């Protein structure tokens, strides 16, 4: 006997019109949240790739960046060249026809020395030894600050001066006190004979050893002096002692580079 299945009861569900706006709003919120979640996931993946270094390329260097780098490098080169020029340039004075090469790293001071110059320490300024007034200091080379730290070194110098209008007899004399004079010295500088003396001085715990020379040419008396000042033997025993003779030998290399030509006014007079 066949039994018939019970009939399904279908009930109609009616939506309260007052709830329709709330349902629509809930559906829109769900859709928008899903979209934002997807975007957030994509953003997270992109961020992860950037952190891991995948698919990340460095920004291309622009023309402006290259120009700035080139200018910076060029400026650095110019500054280094200028620094080398200051510490190792050739001295030249066309007015008196004198030129020489200053050693690298040493100070080259043109003209008269300032009052605050180290000079010979307590023994006074670097001297000129013309017997007549009118001498002009052209240039002086001195050791840079900080050289020979921990020693009894005070200063070393090489100086050149000139006295135009001098005579040969007055140029042959040097204003060096007899008690300070040492042995006579003769040198030839650019075919011009130079004569002078060793010079020594001791006072106020300082000691000075130098050589001064005079040479006459072109109606001009040229003076070249070089020397070394140190703390004397009475100074602190902890200071290492330097050999002044070794420094004098190095200063004589500057002497070997000295060139003397007719002054500008002598050349102009000869061509008129």
Quick recap:
By secondary structure, the chain is α+β, with helices and mostly antiparallel strands. It contains 5 helices and 10 strands.
CATH class of the domain at 83-271: Alpha Beta
Unreliable runs:
1-14, 29-56
Compute the separation of the termini in Å.
Answer: 155 Å
Give me the side-by-side strand order of the main sheet.
3-4-5-9-8-7-6
Strand content: 25-35%
Counted by DSSP, the helix tally is 5
Q: If you consult CATH, what is the topology of the domain at 83-271?
A: Protein Transport Mog1p, Chain A
Alpha-carbon Rg, integer: 44 Å
Overall 3D form: flat
Give the biggest beta sheet.
Answer: 7 strands, antiparallel
The computed structural class is: alpha+beta
**Into which percent range does the helicity of residues fall?**
25-40%
Second-tier CATH architecture of the domain at 83-271 = 3-Layer(aba) Sandwich
Q: What is the string of helix and strand elements?
A: HHEEEEEHEEEEHEH
What is the CATH homologous superfamily assignment of the domain at 83-271?
Mog1/PsbP, alpha/beta/alpha sandwich
Count the strands? Answer: 10
| Mean pLDDT rating | 78
Question: What features would you describe in this structure?
Answer:
- By secondary structure, this protein is α+β, with helices and mostly antiparallel strands.
- It has a domain at 83-271: Mog1/PsbP, alpha/beta/alpha sandwich (Protein Transport Mog1p, Chain A, 3-Layer(aba) Sandwich).
- 31% of the residues lie in helices and 29% in strands.
- The chain has five helices and ten strands; from the N terminus they run H-H-E-E-E-E-E-H-E-E-E-E-H-E-H.
- The protein has helices at residues 20-52, 63-88, 168-172, 244-256, 264-271, and strands spanning 90-93, 98-101, 107-110, 136-142, 153-164, 181-189, 192-203, 206-217, 220-231, 259-260.
- The protein has a seven-stranded antiparallel sheet with strand order 3-4-5-9-8-7-6.
- The longest helix is centred in the N-terminal third of the chain and has 33 residues, at 20-52.
- The chain is flat.
- The termini are far apart.
């Amino acid at each position: 006997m066949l039994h018939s299945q019970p009939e399904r009861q279908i009930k109609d569900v009616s939506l309260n019109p007052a709830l329709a706006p709330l349902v629509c709003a809930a559906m829109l919120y769900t859709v928008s949240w899903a979209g934002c979640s997807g975007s957030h996931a994509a953003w997270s993946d992109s961020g992860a790739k950037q952190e891991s270094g995948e698919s990340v390329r460095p920004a291309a260097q622009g023309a402006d960046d290259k120009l700035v780098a080139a200018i910076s490098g060029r400026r650095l080169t110019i500054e280094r060249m200028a620094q080398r020029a200051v510490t190792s340039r050739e001295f030249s004075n066309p007015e008196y026809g004198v030129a020489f090469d200053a050693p690298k790293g040493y100070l080259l001071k043109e003209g008269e020395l300032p009052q605050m110059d180290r000079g010979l320490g307590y023994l006074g300024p670097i001297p000129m030894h013309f017997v007549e007034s009118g001498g002009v200091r052209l240039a002086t080379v001195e050791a840079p600050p900080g050289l020979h730290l921990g020693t009894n070194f005070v200063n070393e110098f090489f100086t050149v001066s000139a006295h135009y209008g001098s005579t040969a007899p007055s140029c042959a004399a040097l204003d060096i006190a007899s008690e300070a004079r040492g042995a006579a010295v003769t040198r030839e500088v650019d075919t011009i004979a130079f004569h002078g003396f060793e010079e020594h001085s001791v006072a106020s715990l300082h000691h000075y050893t130098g050589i001064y020379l005079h040479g006459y040419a072109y109606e001009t008396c040229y003076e070249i002096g070089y020397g070394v000042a140190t703390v004397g033997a009475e100074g602190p025993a902890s200071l290492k002692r330097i050999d002044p003779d070794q420094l004098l030998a190095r200063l004589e290399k500057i002497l070997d580079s000295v060139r003397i030509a007719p002054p500008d006014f002598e050349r102009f007079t000869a061509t008129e």
